[in-house]
Amino acid sequence: MCQGRTRVAVVGRLVVIEGLDGSGKRTLGAALTEAFQRRGAKVAQHAFPRYGDSVHADLVSDALHGRLGDVADSVHSMAVLFALDRHGARDALLRDLEDFDVVLVDRYIASNAAYQAARLHQDEHGEIVEWIRQLEVERFGLPVPDRQLLLRVPVDLAATRAETRDRVRDTYEKDGGLQARCSAVYDGLARVGWLAPWQVLDGSGDQDFEQLSGTLLADA
């Protein structure tokens, strides 16, 4: 906490950052965390999938790299694995919502909905979107976000950024058509306000992190 600043009267804001692979979610999360902290807010961070920390996330990775036979071919199987990874973090999320002013999450339920709908060539009103909502929110009891930020970037720019990472891209990341359809679903989810209010950000330009952090805290 910064010296001399009055701590904001905020409790348990769940803020989610969504977007394509390579959209800049990690960079936005780090900058927003610093901006929140400059305003005197306590911030906890989470990111999904929790590769290396969750058996379900590691199974996701295995499937997306062709190491689990035909599991990756099943949209519902993959959706369940992603959801189980978040369910494993449910208690930690709830504790942090009690102990911190802002809980900032890199990918959440909407990510599952967007990618699986895109795989099925469905839109934001598709059957799989509602199926995932019922699974993760109603059955698994995951907390609903207070605000969802969609970091929108051109698909080719996101792909170029993803290619520069020092790791092997998975089958979702390498599928340009899937990424384009996923971007369209994300736009639809934001347009209809799926799960919670959305704010769309231009991920190809500079962000005013101070203004954005102030807006998010003022919403409380």
TrEMBL record:
It catalyses: dTMP + ATP = dTDP + ADP. Residues 17-190 form the Thymidylate kinase-like domain. InterPro entries: P-loop_NTPase (IPR027417), Thymidylate_kin-like_dom (IPR039430), Thymidylate_kin_CS (IPR018095), Thymidylate_kinase (IPR018094). SUPFAM superfamilies: P-loop containing nucleoside triphosphate hydrolases. One of its GO terms (cellular component) is cytosol. Gene3D superfamilies: P-loop containing nucleotide triphosphate hydrolases. GO terms for biological process: dTDP biosynthetic process; dTTP biosynthetic process; dUDP biosynthetic process. Pfam families: Thymidylate_kin. Its EC number is 2.7.4.9. GO terms for molecular function: ATP binding; dTMP kinase activity. Keywords: ATP-binding, Kinase, Nucleotide biosynthesis, Nucleotide-binding, Transferase. NCBIfam families: PRK07933.1. Belongs to the thymidylate kinase family. Phosphorylation of dTMP to form dTDP in both de novo and salvage pathways of dTTP synthesis. HAMAP family: Thymidylate_kinase. PANTHER family: THYMIDYLATE KINASE, UMP-CMP KINASE 2, MITOCHONDRIAL. This is Thymidylate kinase.
